[in-house]
Design goal:
The chain is an all-alpha fold. Helix content is 77%, strand content 0%. It contains 13 helices and no strands. It is globular and about 70 Å long.
């Protein structure tokens, strides 16, 4: 029995070490990029979004709004107060919806970290998150012309923690907060991927995600909700799944539902939407994840 435990312990650390070595630098660079943008570019991004009000783009404004949402390094509880300030300045709700939706799904550090999944997954994640944000803005424009979609009055303002007068110290403190917020989830994700590689037979995995594309995407979207705690923490697990045959469409669906419906995001979204619009948000996200995942797999034949 002791010999068996020693052997399994050895295999666990073997798989753990391989995953750690392959992904660690993507995680570190992602944290660094997020801190750089947060310290030196956050205000410029917000100012650029406000300046859009002087243009006459109409509904086409959801395109830059969605892109700026992805470029924003803020977490959900940082994005909502910014969106509230946009609303106070008269920003159109369809633009705000595009900004908030894409900001929920993706940020610069998570985008860079996703490069560990390969270039196709990186591009797919960016395109899907952008389209999900833009489509959300268009739907708000179409169905909420005469009534408000958001209620920002119930959400308090968030203090800015990047205030150290020394720019280097400000950057290092921001980087430290990023590492502290994601480091544990990063290690847990690698540990889960190591356990998966050791103990889950490939044929069991194939039955869940590979045999039936539509059902596989649906399963991935469904398990994304309870399993997805931190965007970075799921990258090692997704990499292990994709190495075992998970389709790109299933991986995309998992990333969309998991990131948008993780508990830390849902709390903030529920506050500013109210129950009825919150349920619409959940339904929209689930449908977009499934439809886009199936479309991706149809465009990308399984080898």
């Amino acid at each position: 029995m002791i010999e068996i435990l020693k052997r399994e312990w050895f295999y666990f650390w073997f798989y753990f070490g391989i995953q750690f070595g392959q992904i660690f630098w993507y995680w570190l660079l992602g944290m660094a990029l997020g801190s750089l943008i947060s310290v030196f570019g956050k205000e410029k991004i917000n100012a650029l979004f406000v300046e859009m009000q002087n243009t006459k783009m109409g509904v086409l404004g959801v395109i830059p709004a969605s892109l700026l949402g992805i470029a924003s390094p803020l977490c959900m509880y940082g994005t909502i107060p910014i969106a509230a300030s946009f609303a106070e300045k008269g920003m159109s709700e369809d633009w705000i919806a595009a900004f908030v939706m894409s900001s929920i799904l993706l940020n610069p550090q998570l985008l860079l970290y996703s490069a560990a999944l390969g270039v196709p997954a990186l591009v797919t994640r960016f395109v899907c998150c952008f389209l999900c944000g833009a489509a959300a803005g268009i739907l708000v424009k179409l169905f909420f012309r005469k009534k408000p979609f958001f209620n920002f009055t119930v959400f308090g303002k968030m203090s800015n923690r990047d205030t150290d007068p020394n720019m280097l110290l400000r950057l290092l403190k921001n980087f430290g907060r990023n590492v502290k917020a994601t480091g544990l989830y990063f290690l847990v994700g690698i540990a889960l991927s190591a356990l998966f590689q050791r103990f889950v037979p490939q044929e069991v995995f194939a039955k869940l995600f590979i045999g039936n594309r539509g059902f596989g995407v649906l399963m991935a979207a469904a398990i994304g909700v309870p399993l997805y705690v931190c965007g970075g923490g799921t990258i090692p697990l997704l990499r292990a799944w994709m190495d075992h045959g998970m389709t790109l469409g299933s991986a995309s669906a998992f990333m969309i539902t998991g990131q948008s419906m993780k508990i830390t995001n849902l709390g903030a979204v529920k506050i500013v939407l109210g129950m009825k619009h919150f349920l619409l948000f959940m339904l929209y996200t689930a449908l977009f994840a499934w439809i886009s995942g199936v479309a991706i797999d149809l465009m990308r034949p399984v080898k």
